[in-house]
């Protein structure tokens, strides 16, 4: 009789840690030769739910360029990690981090995006950051493009809408792989690549004056350029540093049918396909057949060069990284089978609780996602974002009692452990925002995720001092016990 032991816990080399992005933490937006990025021309939102990140226009960009302050553009200031990186990494090391996910700001390395020679000061900054990580035995997990690119490439060629951007990107990636060979072991090409169908943040292309069908054409064409660029980067990485691993990264949107009605089940299946289509391309190396119908029904006609399909086939990733925050439900009433001007869609689930920002909390959905993706792809999986955004309160004696965050993370770690017992090969777990940072969607500071409180408000006022929250010591205990001690 065949029998194989069931895994009982996380692997000994499990990568515990946290995740950030350059445009949400670094600041120093105009120091040491850095160029302006697409993230730094998006105004902060007026409210928690005002997703102004998708309403960029030529006029708003011109206004942002003329504005030399960070008042309306919080991603220009971040939390000043640029000058606090030693202090912050030391705190991560105190928690016992095995890995720290950061992104490299493309415009720090190539300020305009199309230079031949890199900016030495930019490379040197990340040299120092990676050295500081290695000092404490922390592996850098590096996202090459995280919701930003040099603004000049938008002004010159409308970002990823242009095929020329592939060459700009692969010159940038080759520079990174050569310079950080042996220093960075884990790379990812694009953060949440499915966000590209949401607009400017993913594409770097201005399309606010286009109708829905024209937007679909532009955004999926820009996506194709990113698929080719990512595949070429994978091939570069494998050739330059065979010991490194390079993955893709998806915003996983677990979806359930609203009812057992087969029509709702099919609607949910379509939503799932539209979420996993990106990783189908990057892991399996080809466009899935179901997208042929979707493209035709949405007026999308991709322009490809003769060798694009072969490039994509030859550039499949080593692992699949993803973010997981919530799930949603779909019915034939709520989701038409047409291109949606958003990459997150669906109805609320009455069986789930909701965060302060309206995100539904579904730990079991993480186990479901892990199982579905493992069954589908059979490559190592890596949870590189998961966390709870909340309005934390700093007490008079500089403490933050965030038991709600501990509860959220505990439940998700428990479900990851169940997925590992199910047989899923899981590389690690990086919580989003191990230190408070600027919100990606609204540029708020008040939406806090961290184990470490940063004294800064939405207007940029504060001392920038760092304070440990209750969750700091809890996560330290979790890591020390390799996920066994969760109370």
From TrEMBL:
Family per record: Belongs to the glycosyl hydrolase 1 family.
Keywords: Glycosidase, Hydrolase
Any one of the GO BP annotations: carbohydrate catabolic process
Protein origin, superkingdom: Bacteria
Keyword Oxidoreductase in annotation: no
A single MF term (Gene Ontology): beta-glucosidase activity
One Pfam family cited in the UniProt record for this chain: Glyco_hydro_1
UniProt-recorded name of the protein: 6-phospho-beta-glucosidase
GO cellular component: cytosol
InterPro entries noted in UniProt: GH (IPR017853), GH_1_N_CS (IPR033132), Glyco_hydro_1 (IPR001360), Glyco_hydro_1_AS (IPR018120)
This protein's record includes keyword Nucleotide-binding: no
Residues annotated as the enzyme's active site: 385 (nucleophile)
